[in-house]
Specification:
346 residues; alpha+beta; 9-stranded antiparallel β-sheet; 7-stranded antiparallel β-sheet; 7 helices; 16 strands; 25% strand; globular
């Protein structure tokens, strides 16, 4: 959804770089911020050396020739005037005064690590109001402050930043448009909302409400960051009164708000609430009781054996030959009310 660059500087700059806005695009710039060296690969550290300050640059929207002319000038000025190293993570190329060079790990093979997904599924979208969003914001602020929006909006290029427009503006816009999405700070990446506020009588099929956080898998590397992530999952699951939440490696196609049943494979960390916790009593045994019928199991570095989900609650398999066009159908036991149109009514 954007083209990203990291600009590394030796000393803390006493200036800010203004975003450049075009007709259908923008070059947004964030920083300066302190470099978190534990988030960097050894190969990248070798190139940036002692540079310890960072601007993050994003080309968003429909880029054209003017976009790249403006970016080229900014790119060149930063290198020439401030001895910057600019890293292109899309191509693994770093540019400095000496020219371009590929950033290559010393290991013979570098396995690509997929991001992880923390997703919440709940049925009560009608009551996902400003008060509930404010409560969720406080939970994010406490347990996962880096997931707060660096930039946010309802379409690309994202129009706003939390730093410039503030918390109240963000919450007000979120209340007006439940399709709001945003980009957080590393290791958090993108956050997407799909909220169904239609009453049962107006539904055509079943759509739940879903909030998904896409996160770099590096968050699993330290006990502190992993512990905070799990606390975030627990507290947000309670606040949203979820029937299901999970932490897993991101996949395509993923589980959407077009809910069809529980996944066949139990993820790394999972919360199950009513009505599923009532239908799967075995899950409760040995799980942590979070209240209101919600139970949590964590399988990350715990050595616990994963349970097998009851087959009657599992969503049907998607055709591997044509995964995006397979006809949707629900699990054998599907515990949500769906409005069915009487015959003859479109």
């Amino acid at each position: 959804m954007s083209i990203d660059y990291d600009c590394y500087l030796t000393r803390k700059p006493f200036f800010r770089i203004r975003s450049i806005i075009g007709e259908n695009w923008q070059i947004s710039v964030h920083g300066p911020m302190k470099v978190e060296r534990e988030d960097l690969s050894n190969a990248l550290i070798e190139h940036i050396g002692r540079r310890s300050w960072l601007f993050q640059i994003h080309i968003e929207g429909v880029a054209d020739e003017e976009t790249y002319q403006k970016f080229g000038k900014l790119h060149g000025d930063l290198i020439k005037k401030y001895d910057a190293c600019i890293f292109d993570p899309q191509l693994d190329i770093i540019t400095n005064r000496a020219g371009e060079k590929a950033v290559i790990e010393k290991q013979a093979k570098r396995k690509k690590v997929e991001p992880i997904s923390l997703a919440f599924y709940f049925d009560d979208g009608l009551n996902f109001d400003l008060a509930k969003k404010t409560e969720l914001y406080k939970i994010m602020e406490t347990f996962a402050p880096k997931c707060l929006p660096r930039r946010y909006g309802c379409y690309e290029p994202m129009q706003y930043s939390l730093e410039e427009h503030g918390k109240d503006h963000f919450l007000d816009l979120w209340e007006k448009d439940d399709g709001l999405f945003w980009r957080g700070y590393a290791p958090f990446q993108w956050v997407f909302n799909s909220i169904n506020k239609k009453p049962i009588a107006e539904r055509r099929g079943y759509l739940c409400s879903q909030i998904e956080f896409q996160i770099s898998a590096k968050i699993l590397n330290t006990k502190k960051s992993l512990g905070n992530l799990l606390k975030f999952q627990i507290e947000a699951s309670k606040a949203l009164n979820v029937f299901y939440s999970e932490i897993k490696y991101h996949e395509y196609p993923g589980t959407s708000w077009g809910w069809r049943g529980l996944p066949n494979k139990i993820p790394m960390s999972v919360c199950i609430g009513p009505p599923y916790s009532e239908l799967w009593s075995e899950f409760q045994d040995g799980a942590e009781n979070l209240g209101n019928g919600i139970f949590w199991r964590n399988y990350i570095e715990t050595g616990l054996e994963k349970l097998q989900c009851p087959p009657e609650l599992v969503k049907p398999e998607i055709s591997e030959e044509n995964p995006y066009n397979s006809a949707p159908c629900d699990a054998e036991i599907f515990p949500f009310k769906i409005y069915k149109r009487p015959k003859g009514i479109p």
